[in-house]
Amino acid sequence: MRMKLTDYYYSLSIKKKITLSFTLALSLLIILLAIIAFRISSGILIDKAIENTAQNLKLVSEKLEIIFDNAENYSKIAITNSTIQEVISEPQTTNELEKYNKYYAMQESLRNIVDAKTFVDALIVYDLHGNIYDSGNLASIRNVSEDYFKKFANSMYGLEWLNTHASNYLKGNDGRNVISLFQKFNSAKTGVPLGLIQLSIDERYIANQYSNINIGTSGNIFIVNKNGIVASDPRKDKLYTSIGNSDYFPWALRNEGGKVFQMDGQNYLVVSRSYPRFDWVIIGIVPIHEITKDNQVLTEKFIGIGALFVLVALILTFLITRSITSPLNVIKKTVRDVQEGNLDVKLNIKSRDEIGALAKEFNKMVGNTKLLMNNIIEEQKQKREYELAVMQSQINPHFLYNTLESICGLADLKRNADVVKIVNQLAHFYRGVLSKGSAIITMEDEIVITQTYLEILKIRYGDQMTYALDIDPVVYQYKTIKLLLQPIVENSIYHGLKNKRGKGHIDIKGRVKEDRLILSISDNGVGIPEEKRDNLFNERDSLQDKNKDKGGFGLKVTDERIKLYFGPEYGLEIHSVFGEGTTVTITLPTLEKEGDAE
């Protein structure tokens, strides 16, 4: 049955498939929309509530961090205060006036530190002799246990926070709950222990930092320690109560974020954030019904939008299917024409959608295919012509005649050694040029051909011409087209050095830069006039033009050969200063086998 339905669907036209698919999809949408609208909207509202509450808890955490950081800073200020250090370091005295002066000096110093610091409830100093000094306004102070002194005995600057506890002092007639910092301090001069400082913060001040943060009409934020005991809560009756047995506390202790829990038959959103400094957990609790009270309105909007979408989609179904299938039929017919070899066809689809883009790209593809075929034909033709030109240039009658005349002249002068040398060099040159008929040779062979050519000319011209090779050995391994350098060197000699007075010199350099071969041929000849240099690659430089002495292939033909074999991004660049010399730079790819060039 399933196979029959699948076969039936695949046999339908695109128009029928789209209509059927839309009908099924819209039917499912109507059925599912009512079911999922409530869940979606509830999920969105709960996620938003989690995000907002988490931001509020982060704000509480940041406020706490500022308060406790400041408390530690003020404690450090107090223990390094010069007056406090001096008074505590003084020897014990029985003189009541001296005792009073010490107490007054200490109280003034402590008051100066904590005045206007609204979060500091009390600042108390205990010395090692049992004396107690405070910042003022404290009715009575109970000494702290010796255990606090012992905690810091082995550290230079011991510091300990004590979670929420009943204060060991009265402020007026008010006993209060505080969070206290205890820090041992030593003499700044000798390092000898001097005493202990206590800085206490009223828990009500901590609770006031977040009591006005709104997370719902009946939502609450409070802080518990790792044992589930409430350490801070704007609701005073909740302080020191335990939530350790609640369902949500184990989760809140191990996780950050939000989760829904059921308590007393009602769902609540619980959002938690850890406060590692005291192993506290900041918790926000909001009833779910407060979060989702507007959910019914959102659900109705979802249903209304869904119904409107169904209506519009049904109207558009017919228009969409017709707009898709009509141009597809045209494309289908045109593709068949191309398959039959007709590359002159063109799709005239004006739409700007995907089908229009497909038609546009199809036209480009057909045009490019036609152009590519024409280019292949033309390139094959040019390649054969250039290969013929290479073969013709391999036997350069002009160069051969001049060399033979030089041999005759040397023989008349009885310079037999030079005759033998020039004949050997000539043989080496043509052996390299012929290269067993291959058009692609290594750079090493190409440089040997060029060097042989220069040696022949050096014998002919004597000390009137010199040359130098500076080739990076790594260059030798790469492949290039044959007779690449010799025509450029010939051009430098016959058009640069021949008309120069004095000695001529040619430099040939080769380097690998990134993935390219960079070769340069420089001469100190007469240079190229600016107007001729600008038109050098524009003028027709025919191999058949015998009225011009182009020096081997000519620069233009060499540049065209490079571009034909390797691509338009490679070729020659000419830099010349008239009267000073010329540099021809050749850019080639780094090819290690002949197939890469073909």
TrEMBL record:
| One cellular component term from this protein's GO annotations in UniProt | plasma membrane
Record membrane topology: Multi-pass membrane protein
Instruction: Give the UniProt subcellular location, in the record's own words.
Output: Cell membrane
In this protein, which residues make up the domain named Histidine kinase? 481-592
Q: What is its main location?
A: membrane
**Which PROSITE patterns has this protein been placed in?**
HAMP, HIS_KIN
Keyword entries, A-Z: ATP-binding, Cell membrane, Kinase, Membrane, Nucleotide-binding, Phosphoprotein, Transferase, Transmembrane, Transmembrane helix, Two-component regulatory system
The protein depicted here goes by the name histidine kinase
Q: Provide the species name.
A: Cohnella endophytica
Classification of source organism:
Bacteria, Bacillati, Bacillota, Bacilli, Bacillales
